[in-house]
Design brief:
The protein is of the alpha+beta class. It is built from 6 helices and 4 strands; from the N terminus they run H-H-E-H-H-E-E-H-H-E. The chain has a 4-stranded antiparallel beta sheet with strand order 2-3-1-4, sandwiched between helices. The longest helix has 26 residues, at about 1-25.
């Protein structure tokens, strides 16, 4: 009974994640050519970072390609280890705010594995985007390397390991609101 409840629960969670990702993709679709030509070019503001939370807690659902779980896990462990060892209080707090779980319900071998990055006491300043954490650690993209690893080559190795493990559109952030006492 419990196993079927867990299986159904995660199926609903994955379905909701897929629907959210599809909705985001549709919302980002370009307007028809006639509207683009008629509209005057407006200054472009960068889209909001969905992995920079305004809530205290969040869950990030990550879908990892079959056979890539060990790469994802070692990459994220390297990030958290580096954050926890940082001399910068904001980075140390970022590392302490993340706990990573793997969904242990049976999943068919051809399906992505599910991981949950549970964020408690979320940073309101830094993003939970793994690329921004690895390379910029609080600086704006486009600046010189200021990442959490001593060498940029190490950062690139960890980034590539995680990027190659995650399926396309496989990161689904869920800001959480506490209810009750």
């Amino acid at each position: 009974m419990r196993r079927s409840f867990v299986t159904v629960g995660f199926a609903v969670l994955v379905g909701a994640s897929i629907v959210q990702a599809q909705s985001q993709q549709q919302a980002q679709a370009a307007p028809p050519a006639q509207q683009q030509a008629a509209a005057a070019p407006a200054p472009q503001t960068p889209p909001a970072d969905p992995l920079r939370f305004t809530t205290d807690d969040a869950a990030i659902i990550v879908q990892v390609a079959p056979g890539k779980g060990a790469d994802f896990e070692s990459g994220y462990n390297a990030i958290i280890t580096s954050l926890n060892a940082s001399a910068t209080p904001e980075l140390k707090a970022l590392g302490a705010s993340m706990k990573i779980f793997k969904v242990s319900a049976p999943i068919p071998p051809e399906q992505p594995s599910l991981y949950i990055v549970l964020v408690t006491g979320a940073s309101k300043v830094l993003s939970y985007n793994y690329g921004k954490i690895i390379y910029y650690s609080g600086k704006e993209p486009g600046t010189e390397y200021a990442g959490i690893f001593p060498k940029q080559e190490d950062a690139t190795a960890v980034y590539t390991k995680i990027k190659d493990a995650i399926v396309p559109n496989g990161i689904n952030p869920w800001p959480l609101a506490k209810i009750g006492g």
